[in-house]
Design brief:
By secondary structure, this protein is α/β, with parallel strands linked by helices. It has helices at about 15-25, 25-30, 30-35, 40-50, 70-75, 90-100, 140-150, 175-190, 215-225, 250; strands spanning about 60-65, 80-85, 105-110, 125-130, 155-165, 195-200, 205-210, 225-235, 255-260. A hairpin with a 2-residue loop joins strand 6 and strand 7. The chain is globular, with a radius of gyration of 18 Å. The model has no long low-confidence stretch (mean pLDDT about 95). One of its GO terms (biological process) is methylation.
Length: about 270
């Protein structure tokens, strides 16, 4: 059954109709690298990954890998990659890149809420970048993703996560209005949570993204049993850390990059 006639009740947990259509469109995967070819937003987070994922031969799981923009550079440094995505077209491109350069990358089509195929404690590192966690609808489903991260990490393993800051909408055109509307809708509609956004993206209607407060993000991470080592507040360009984060940083940050660790077993 293709993406356009599968009934809503048969969609995977946490996956919206817009996301389901997005991951099944070949042209989005085929044009993904070209679409972001001149975008420097990724340079900062890629450097953070390289600074923390340093053990040669270690396994790193990329949750929502896309075309492997963050995973391929790590594989070139000698890490073993596990590319996880719901999109077969995206994974096809990752596989082509791996074969072209003989990179140690294994691809797995998987919904992040349902990662039972992955063994406990099987990876040294994990990452979920480009606000992929925000594409998972439902607070309980997002917590399940975080619980899965804890489970698949080895004790002492690192997890790096990027999400968008809800309050940065204060600076966007129409953002303050959206914040008020979203707050009201969350009170009257049990299907809407504070931070839920819908929009059109690259020709796909009704794309979904959840944007986070710092408190909500901390609760998700610690609720899974992970420890926060560092939380980087991003400036408006996302190409560097926010200057003077202590000065209303939770209102000024574009988003957060969080370095987390699964505690060592005692």
């Amino acid at each position: 059954m293709n993406s356009y006639n599968r009934p809503a009740w048969r969609l995977p947990s946490g996956v919206t109709r817009g996301l389901w259509d997005y991951v099944h469109r070949d042209h989005i995967a085929d044009d993904y690298d070209g679409y972001f070819a001149y975008n420097r937003l990724f340079e900062f987070d890629e450097q953070i990954l390289k600074d923390h994922f340093v053990k040669p031969g270690a396994w790193v799981a990329d949750l929502g890998c896309g075309t492997g923009r963050a995973l391929v550079p790590l594989a070139r440094l000698g890490l073993q990659g596990l590319a996880i995505d719901l999109s077969e077209p995206m994974l096809r491109i990752v596989q082509e890149k791996a074969e072209l350069e003989n990179l140690p990358i294994t691809c797995l089509r998987c919904n992040l809420v349902e990662m039972d195929a992955l063994v406990d404690g099987g990876v040294d590192y994990a990452m979920c970048m480009f606000s992929t966690l925000g594409m998972v609808r439902g607070g309980a489903n997002r917590q399940t993703v975080m619980n899965n991260v804890f489970r698949i990490l080895k004790p002492g393993g690192l997890f790096i996560l990027h999400v968008h800051n809800r309050y940065y909408n204060l600076y966007d055109p129409g953002g303050p209005r959206w914040l008020l509307q979203n707050f009201y809708q969350s009170l009257v509609d049990p299907e809407v949570e504070r931070g839920d956004k819908w929009f059109q993206y690259r020709g796909v209607p009704n794309m979904y993204l959840h944007v986070f407060t710092r408190r909500e993000l901390t609760r998700l991470i610690t609720g899974a049993g992970l420890r926060i080592q560092q939380m980087v507040l991003l400036d408006h360009s996302r190409m560097r850390a926010l200057r003077r984060p202590w000065m209303f940083g939770q209102l000024r940050a574009n988003g957060y990059i969080v370095i987390c660790q699964r505690p060592l077993e005692t």
